[in-house]
Amino acid sequence: MSLRAWCLILISSLFIACSNQDNTILHDTRGQQVTAAQLKHHWVIINYWAPWCEACMEEVPELNRFYKGIQNSQQVVMYGVDFDHDPGDQLTEVVKQVHIDYPVLVEDPSEAWGLQSLTVVPTTFIINPQGKVVKMISGAVSEQSLLNLLQELQSQA
Length: 157
Prior knowledge:
Elements lengths: L2 H20 L2 E3 L5 E3 L7 E7 L4 H17 L5 E7 L5 H10 L6 E2 L4 H4 L9 E5 L5 E6 L4 H14 L1
Parallel strand pairs: 3-4, 4-5
Antiparallel strand pairs: 1-2, 3-6, 6-7
Helix pairs in contact: 2-5
């Protein structure tokens, strides 16, 4: 096979892989579907948490306030992800028990969004409108620190 044919196959494979990545269907505990492709042109906040993590539980009210402030935004979306990957109904119950008001994804979006493996929770990722992870924050965040960081990142874009 010629070098040109190999290059065409490689480019086609990469295009198909990227297209499939954009079409990965995720679900939240509210029954909504989301794909990476739907979130293009948005700033995406992904927060990994666990119910046994004290810092995670302390940041939930801060994240709830942040979500309330961006809830009607056309530019910013936010999702929580349970580090323990509890199954559907169990996850929904945990979300209610810990009073999370923002959408929580049932599936782990790390592959769909190319997120780095986690070693600590809470961890928050900020993904720019082009789908690139531009910030990873290990440890708890506050409403104000997220707002400030997002404003800074948006001004640099």
